[in-house]
Amino acid sequence: MPAEITHDDMFGQAIRLTMEAGGFSSVLEIGSFDGLGSTQVFIEALRNRESTPRLVCLEANRSKYDSLCLNTIEHSWVMPVWQSSISLASLTPQDFDRDVWNSPYNGLAYPRDTVRGWWEQTQRHLVTVSEGYLEATSDTFDVVLIDGDEFCGYDDFRLVKDRCRCIMLDDAYSAFKCHRANRELAADPAWYPIWADSTVRNGAAIWMRRK
């Protein structure tokens, strides 16, 4: 499966420009996959920093994590982490029909049974997680990219909102993942949009905290 967020992708270009303009040096990437997508965009943006940068890459799938390690091994400041962002205890959606399928934040254009299958897969995974990365640490970052599990996006956002200066959301419009987070940021005067495009795949957005 080819990477979606790349140097040639509009969101990837926006990420690079935001990193350069902000002079950011620490990033948490939630949902790194195999390290060939947004991870490479961040590496390119961070590699020439005067001080040693920090890129923490979360990936919960073991085979993808193994590939992530191989694809970032030459950069000592890239830290792959084989861990879920959250556990079931932090998941806001409780009932599929009420909290997902019939939610005002559900922008998914897929059959109900397909989405239900994803939901059940998430449930099976999270029940095995004793503590997620965002629950276990209080680390702060300049930038957080949220592009992990479809049903964890809002809770990833809840737990990182006060720990960063810039939030980057993939699947922010025609999706469930970051739809609610994107709408809440739009209504929050403490944040302002740097870039947004609802037509890039399922839409993406970048938000900055006001000083």
How would you describe the overall organization of this protein?
The chain is an alpha/beta fold and 211 residues long. It has a single domain, classed as 3-Layer(aba) Sandwich (Rossmann fold), CATH 3.40.50.150. It is 35% helix and 19% strand. It has a seven-stranded mixed β-sheet with strand order 3-2-1-4-5-7-6, with helices on both faces. The longest helix has 15 residues, at 112-126.
Number of domains: 1
Query: In percent, how helical is the residue content?
Result: 25-40%
> Count the helices. How many?
8
Enumerate the spans where pLDDT stays under 50 for 5 or more consecutive residues: none
CATH superfamily: Vaccinia Virus protein VP39
Relative strand content: 15-25%
Strand neighbour order, sheet with most strands: 3-2-1-4-5-7-6
Average pLDDT for all residues: 95
CATH class category: Alpha Beta
User: What distance lies between the first and last C-alpha atoms, to the nearest angstrom?
Assistant: 39 Å
Seen as an oligomer or otherwise, the chain set is single chain
Biggest sheet features: 7 strands, mixed
Shape: globular
CATH topology annotation: Rossmann fold
Structural class: alpha/beta
Radius of gyration: 16 Å
